[in-house]
Write a structure and sequence with these properties.
By secondary structure, the chain is an alpha+beta fold. Helices cover about 20% and strands about 40% of the residues. It folds into two domains: about 60 residues, 2,3-Dihydroxybiphenyl 1,2-Dioxygenase, domain 1 (Roll), CATH 3.10.180; about 50 residues, Signal recognition particle alu RNA binding heterodimer, srp9/1 (2-Layer Sandwich), CATH 3.30.720.110. The model has no long low-confidence stretch (mean pLDDT about 90). Pfam families: 3-dmu-9_3-mt (PF06983).
């Protein structure tokens, strides 16, 4: 799998509706994973979206989630750039450079879903998420 670069949008509880709308606009395959499916069953956000991905027939990819509990949803700053793929060496190199003079909000390490992941804001104020898919 080649590395992929795409927008990642954060919503305030309406990610499912937004992603279904984008599917009606762009077509394609939509996957939706809830917080409940990811270990937060029985919580107030159980049915909200932890991660979603729309892959369109034209090659567009949009990823999105509802803002997790404890994090602020601030319209205007709710879009990040996502880098993902299975080339760990390449993606770790991007992470090192992007986070070097920036601010790390999620350290780059193995996550509960099994991938290596980190989130940072680069020195220019752009939010990045880097995910190395584990096979």
């Amino acid at each position: 799998m080649a590395s992929r670069l795409n927008p990642y949008i954060s919503f305030a509880g309406d990610a499912r509706q937004a992603m279904e709308f984008y599917k009606s606009v762009f077509g394609g395959e939509l996957t939706l994973n809830t917080f409940g499916e990811s270990g937060m069953a029985g919580s107030p956000v159980e049915n909200q979206i932890m991660h979603s991905q729309l892959d369109s027939p034209s090659g567009y990819t949009i990823m999105a989630s509802d803002t997790p509990p404890g994090m602020e949803h601030k319209p205007g700053t709710n879009v990040s750039v996502s880098l993902s793929g299975d080339d760990g060496e390449e993606l770790r190199g991007y992470w090192e450079k992007l986070s070097a003079e920036g601010t790390v909000s999620v350290p780059f390490e193995k996550q509960m879903w099994g991938d290596e992941f980190g989130a940072c804001t680069d020195k220019f104020g752009i939010s990045w998420m880097v995910n190395v898919i584990q096979s």
